[in-house]
Amino acid sequence: MNIYGIKNCSTVKKALDWLKENNIEFTFHDFKKEGVSAEKLQEWSAKVGYEKLLNKQGLTWKQLPAETKASITSVAAALQILHDKNSMIKRPVLEFEDQLVLGFEEGKYRMLFLSGKN
Question: Is 48 a catalytic residue?
Answer without folding.
Answer: no
